[in-house]
């Protein structure tokens, strides 16, 4: 429900703006910073690209159990969702999703699509993030 409430607040704020036809947005949800962009594919269909860095793997000496659980979740979840998790060389774990739509979405239509994408991934995002350490700025 927190996701729904957060997105309703964002949508309410966006409706109060003069230019509601945005095609990209950055927002925080559950402490995760997301970046979303609506684009157009080569065939004229729309694309929604959503990305976020979730956290960093623990080093084995810090917490071997959490590191193992996070890695297991990355590989098991990648087979079960539309998005993908990636671990870079520094151990940062990122989420990315590319969703095709009939047309390029903007404004409220983009927010509605992002809500559906995040509702689908919510359980996996929370579970994986619980095994990661935050990235210090």
- Average of pLDDT: 85
User: CATH class, please?
Assistant: Alpha Beta
Q: Structural class given helices, strands, pairing? A: alpha+beta
**CATH fold-level name:** Yope Regulator, Chain: A
Q: Which percent range describes the beta-strand content?
A: 25-35%
- In terms of quaternary structure, the protein is single chain
**Radius of gyration computed on alpha carbons:** 16 Å
Low-confidence runs (pLDDT<50, min 5 residues)?
A: none
Question: Secondary-structure element sequence?
Answer: HEEEHEEH
Morphology: globular
Number of helices: 3
CATH architecture heading? 2-Layer Sandwich
What is the tally of beta strands? 5
Distance separating the two termini:
28 Å
What does the secondary structure layout of this molecule look like, with pairings?
Blueprint: H1 2-16, E1 24-29, E2 32-40, E3 46-56, H2 60-77, E4 84-87, E5 92-101, H3 107-129
Antiparallel strand pairs: 1-2, 2-3, 3-5, 4-5
Tell me what you see in this structure:
This protein is of the alpha+beta class and 137 residues long. It has one domain (2-129): Yope Regulator, Chain: A (2-Layer Sandwich). It has helices at 2-16, 60-77, 107-129, and strands spanning 24-29, 32-40, 46-56, 84-87, 92-101. Helix 1 packs antiparallel against helix 3 and helix 2 packs across helix 3. The longest helix is centred in the C-terminal third of the chain and has 23 residues, at 107-129.
């Amino acid at each position: 429900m927190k996701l729904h409430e957060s997105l309703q607040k964002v949508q309410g704020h966006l409706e109060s703006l003069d230019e509601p036809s945005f095609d990209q947005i950055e927002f925080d949800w559950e402490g995760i910073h997301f970046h979303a962009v609506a684009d157009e594919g080569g065939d004229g269909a729309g694309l929604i690209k959503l990305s976020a860095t979730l956290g960093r793997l623990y080093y084995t000496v810090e917490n071997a159990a959490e590191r193992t659980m996070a890695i297991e979740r990355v590989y098991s979840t990648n087979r079960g969702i539309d998005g993908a998790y990636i671990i870079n060389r520094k151990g940062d774990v990122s989420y990315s999703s590319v969703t095709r739509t009939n047309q390029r979405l903007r404004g409220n239509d983009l927010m509605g699509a992002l809500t559906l994408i995040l509702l689908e991934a919510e359980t996996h995002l929370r579970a994986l993030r619980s095994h990661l350490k935050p990235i210090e700025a």
